[in-house]
Give the backbone structure.
Amino acid sequence: MLEKVPASELKCVGHGTERIDTVEKVTGAAYYTGDLCFPGMLFGKVKRSPHAKARIVHIDTSRARALPGVHAVLTGADLDVRVGLYLVDKYVLARDVVRHFGEAVAAVAAESPEIARKAVDLIQVEYEPMTPVLDPAEAVKNGAPLVHPDLGSYDYVQEVFSPVGGTNIANISKYRKGDIEKGFAEADVIVEREYTNPSVQHVPMETHVSIGQWQPGDKIQIWTSAQSPFTVRNLFCHSFKLSHNQVRVFIPYVGGGFGGKAGIHLEPLACCLSRAAGGRPVKIQATREEEFSLLPCRSGLVNRIKTGVTRDGRIVAQQMTMLWDAGAYADYAVNVTRASGYSAAGPYEIPNAHIDAYTVYTNKPFGTAYRGFGHVEFSWGTERHMTILARAIGMDPLEFRKRNALRPGSITLTGEVIREHTGNVTKCMDTVARAIGYGEPLSKELEDREARTGKRIGKAVVALHKAPAMPPFTGTAVVLRMNEDGTVIATLSLTEIGAGTYTSIAQIIAEALKFPVERIKIPIENDTDRDPYDWQTVASKGLMLCGNAGILAARDLLNKAYDMAAQVLRANPCDLDHDADRIFVRHAPDQSVTFRSLAVGYAYPNGSGIGGPLVGVGRYIAQGLTNLDKETGQGLPALDWTYGAHGLVVEVDPITGEYEVLKVASAFDVGKAINPLAVRGQIIGGMIQGLGTAMCEGYIYDAAGKLLNPNFTDNKIPTSLDMPAEIEAYVVETPQIDGPYGARGVGEHSMIAICAALGNAIQDACGADLTKMPIRWEDVWRALKTAGPQVESSATIRNRAACNTRK
Amino acid sequence: MRIRVRVNGREYHQEAPDHWTLLRFLREGLGLTGTKEGCGAGECGACTIIMDGRTVNSCLVLAPEADGATIETIEGQAEGGKLTRLQEALHKHHAVQCGFCTPGMVMSIEAFLRVNPRPTVAEIKEAIEGNFCRCTGYQQIIEAVQEVTGQRQEQEELGHA
């Protein structure tokens, strides 16, 4: 699909065009789901569990039902319907038992939010608390209390996942490459350590909100803040046994998703309340507190890594056991487990690997997709580990990474051969290393600063990769319609959740049509009744798949226009060419017909018409990918690989553990930056979001499994004051042969591995050896205090001592 | 109670329940939905408006407290449909992604630039500290502000390795 157009001839692609959706956003005109109000609309509220695990003994809703203004009250007993993305394990409202703190046990629809809240307070729930299982390492043990005793009977996607009935294991994904025993036998040094990540909240600025209307006759309309209109429809129809023709999903502007609005969430409950209220529309808007525990988070991870390396810096074997803390429901966590498993080597070639990735149920709010889809979490461990390994053999960590980096001819964990056009991770590493002066003596300024303040400067370079985690047959379609004046409307069902993809796709379509980008309109809102299918807006696959479909749609529209023009001009279609305004005969350019006159069908001077309105259809589906073998993980999962690297400079107070990130430079091999300003926005936005994960974010529970920090006071996210003083964003452009104009996705990648960049730079600065996310100042202080014996080789410790002496 | 306010130059005299916040009054009472609720607790700044010349989190102000006030919201910024210089700069610099924090961010910056028309980067960061943005990482917002204040030099923004 790579259109072979020299960069100098590109008119739309490669330019920092202004976004097509900003004017309405800077003026307040853009409407989001929460801004919508319909005649007769009711307000839904949920009653949430105060327990992590409890039997529901009795629910008394009589007082709530009697409250004037209440139109519907539902409990789990009213709704024998389970919903699930890959594993159908979640009731719309808890039935018989609650499985996590914050789970919905009852819901109300009323004429105002106040009445709804009062009615929720009037619902009396009698619980019998049970002992929850909160730690995934405990949950996998024999005899652990089961979160889902009926797991063995649940529906699931059998080709891909492997739940183990009678346990808390919702899925196991296994990856086997080479001979692990032989690999470890070749190693000079073996290092085994464990790294952990807590659950983290996405924090879209717009909380989840859905409006559902279940009209008599089972005609259903849903307006929702979601990333995936067709997946909402498909899962809804599957669970409620409805025809796809009965359900229509609209997505207005979306105030951020980051994965948390993929799949299906509040939509079924809003619709069920509407049905119970006689068909009046019901809006449920999550409060910020509900966003933390009623709605999903990112799964936690316990990541045990054992790696064998040779003295000359080759990784010869790696064994990993990942325990993904799914929380109470599988949702996306099973697929996070799968995707992180096949990527777990990082952008390095490891000849002998043995990886077991488990999705583990616990009694906690459940995990879902979050920008990076597992890679942020496992890369904390793997990229920390790379530095620990390098230190263990006395090698510079960047040199060690480059020695093992994937290059053309390398074979990935699943058996895929890396090719020239896959991308260049080494160039990304070199770029950021240069940008932060890695390996160079400190500048005079920084040296003086160290001397003056007693603080220490540390630097690190980390590398990363990610491929879209998606079904191997993921497809999409784009439809172009030409208006009477020659402008074009493109419809697609990727959602514009903020990443700017619609602008880039408009640029691609404009380039393919040879039209100015201003002539292409992509309506931001989605409607499953009107727009062509897309699977979901996830995985950083949208630009590539929709971009290609857009090019094909442009070709289709032009073919139809050429056919008409050939007739009008009495020319062979093959002799025609076009510019932005007209189609002309190449060897007689004065013979031409305008797009405007062809747009809705051509009319001869006598009024006779030919052709018809110009419509172009483009369909694209991932090619040649396969499911993975369940025992070995072998197969082809990757549409493309986007490589990247971060360079980070930190200043640490070695007495108190206080630190400040002075600089981050990031580079990604995006193939081709369709819109450099949008790419830069994705790089910097993800970098700061990643620093949030690294520095301060994460769920904190008490011993009973109650979430203690569901707000911005106790779960801080980065503000402008948390930005590094210096930020640099770079692209490497190794064209993706099957990408639109060579492009590949970069939406998620900027978040990946930055946690490890921070951890490694802090270790470089002061020796603090960190294994747990996040890294708060007190964690650095604690690590400095407890720098006792670790599971490390003595070389590591010597190396660290040498490092400290150097400082 | 009956509330008299001047919003974006227009007089309103309208009934609102005593417990309503100013945010709710603007959105549901006056239909000005450009101002957003991000947390309802004064932490995220999405609901920032200008009241009597000062920025407030409208989720923390009760509607009756605004009685008699002069209020500016995002809807009043682009006069006659023409974007302000700040709005233009945010547009040009890709300083907006999902756009949900943008109305509050615009109001914060607008009020800030009235009292400090030539701010340093540190001052800009401090001024928008109370406005969370989860998408942009703030950098392009700061660059847009610098453009408005005439302190931005044109430069290659995305490095090509």
